[in-house]
């Protein structure tokens, strides 16, 4: 009987420990303001792309408000938690879409979306972005200062 009770509590202990692991990656709070030559950039998408995959990293994104302020959200971490601590390349994009342009094909008009990018090209290109940041453990305030001629 003692052996069965010991075995039962051993299995229960192992299951309890296994169930107490982390749920997703630990993310750190990240916020900031995006400016272009000192003026706030509204309705832009901010994307943090990990420079390395070690430790486990993931992309994080956010959208700026009317004052250029953003808060990051990660994919598997908490929805408004931020980003995993580490180094990132940063992309900032803003565009308008005009779907009124059309293309005639076999007598039917197909709408074609035409994008107009409103920020300089290097900020939307992972290979050429001049923005690189490090997310630290804890609360992070990371301003992103863009230039018309980076």
Task: Provide tags for this entry.
single chain, 150 residues, mainly beta, Immunoglobulin-like, five-stranded mixed sheet, five-stranded antiparallel sheet, 14 strands, globular, disordered N terminus
Can you describe this structure in just a few lines?
This protein has about 150 residues and is mainly beta.
User: In percent, how helical is the residue content?
Assistant: 10-25%
The termini sit apart by: 76 Å
Using the alpha-carbon principal axes, give the shape: globular
SSE pattern, N- to C-terminal: HEEEEEEEEEEEEEE
Radius of gyration: 23 Å
Portion in beta strands: 35-45%
Biggest β-sheet strands, sense, barrel: 5 strands, mixed
Task: Give a structural overview.
The chain has a domain of 98 residues: Immunoglobulins (Immunoglobulin-like). The chain contains one helix and 14 strands; from the N terminus they run H-E-E-E-E-E-E-E-E-E-E-E-E-E-E. Strands 1, 2, 5, 13 and 14 form a five-stranded mixed sheet that branches. The protein has a five-stranded antiparallel sheet with strand order 6-4-3-7-12, with no helix packed on it. It is globular and about 55 Å long.
Write the layout of secondary structure elements.
Layout lengths: L1 H17 L11 E7 L2 E2 L4 E6 L9 E4 L5 E3 L1 E2 L11 E8 L1 E4 L3 E4 L2 E4 L2 E4 L14 E4 L4 E2 L2 E3 L4
């Amino acid at each position: 009987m003692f052996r069965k009770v010991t075995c039962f509590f051993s299995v229960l202990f192992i299951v309890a420990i296994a169930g107490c692991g982390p749920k997703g990656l630990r993310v750190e709070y990240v916020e900031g303001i995006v400016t272009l030559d000192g003026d706030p950039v509204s309705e832009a998408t901010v994307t943090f792309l990990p420079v390395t995959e070690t430790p486990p990293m993931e992309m994080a994104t956010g959208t700026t408000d009317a004052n250029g302020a953003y808060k990051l959200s990660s994919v598997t971490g908490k929805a408004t938690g931020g980003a995993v601590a580490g180094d990132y390349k940063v992309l900032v994009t803003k565009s308008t879409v005009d779907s009124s342009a059309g293309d005639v094909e076999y007598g039917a008009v197909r709408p074609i979306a035409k994008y107009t990018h409103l920020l300089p090209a290097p900020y939307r290109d992972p290979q050429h972005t001049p923005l690189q940041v490090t997310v630290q453990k804890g609360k992070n305030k990371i301003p992103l200062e863009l230039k018309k001629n980076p």
